[in-house]
Amino acid sequence: MSHGHSWGHRLRSAIGARGRLCVGIDPHPSLLQAWGLPETAEGVEAFSEICVEAFVGEVALVKPQVAFFEAYGSAGYAVLERTISVVRSAGTLVVADAKRGDIGSTMAAYAQSWLGDGSPLASDAVTASPYLGFGSLDPALALASETGRGVFVLARTSNPEGGRLQGARLSETSGSGAPDGEVSAVQAVSVAQSVVDDAVAHNRDGRDTVGLVVGATRGHGLDLSEFSGPILAPGLGAQGATVADLAEIFYDSRELLLPNTSRDVLRHGPSVSALRAAAERVRDEVEAGLA
Ligand SMILES: O=C(O)c1cc(=O)[nH]c(=O)n1[C@@H]1O[C@H](COP(=O)(O)O)[C@@H](O)[C@H]1O
């Protein structure tokens, strides 16, 4: 599918029409069980079809969690391909939650899979990990901007284990002018802040290709004031974050804030109408809370 518009343009128009909520399609084994579906690729297919019926046209974005499809091998991937393509052709944006990250030459292959025109898994955006170095993501960022897609780069994740690594201080040093060749620390930003800063620098081309992932589960401690791209904020619902937390934590970054909720909506299935009502309720709460 070819796109006349940049990712930033398509995202703004989708959230202008249907709000900022991103709903996850996360076919956990426990949800399959709760919905009376088998723990097989067929079960995942039935689960995904129900989600598509409930969410398409109601929310701006959906985020299939690739791990739950991958668990069923090629049959699971076939379901994922069909899900991505049916959602996208209905005009709802798809963020593939694949969290890819590797050395640049391999990253180029991942980029082709998720962001390349004509790929069976091509989505509107993909999640990526910058922890092999932000620059390792360059092939994905380049392809995304060429094909009018987005990349959501992990900055501060929602899980409790992330803080030690992501909050660690980087010592940026400057040797010039220091006495006796000593280096003097000029600043010490956190690892997560350095990801934000790299994203800001990359988005200077005005395309909003780089989005960030910042968990909604706690104060992120980041300076997001220079970042105007989209921020995917998982953690709403099952991980304990509330809409009131969003307004507080992201007080200065509301325009393209995309809160994600998965289990807290999905627990209302398998009834399509109950699922749809739950998604609409959270979508409207988010819009009211971030107004
Ligand atoms: O990239 C993500 O979406 C993500 C990043 C993060 O920091 N935390 C996080 O929970 N996620 C994903 O967001 C979804 C959250 O699901 P729930 O906790 O069920 O709402 C899961 O698919 C996670 O893999």
From TrEMBL:
SUPFAM superfamilies: Ribulose-phoshate binding barrel. Pathway: Pyrimidine metabolism; UMP biosynthesis via de novo pathway; UMP from orotate: step 2/2. PROSITE patterns: OMPDECASE (PS00156). Pfam families: OMPdecase. The active site is at K99. It catalyses: orotidine 5'-phosphate + H(+) = UMP + CO2. It comes from the Bacteria. PANTHER family: OROTIDINE 5'-PHOSPHATE DECARBOXYLASE. This is Orotidine 5'-phosphate decarboxylase. The gene is pyrF.
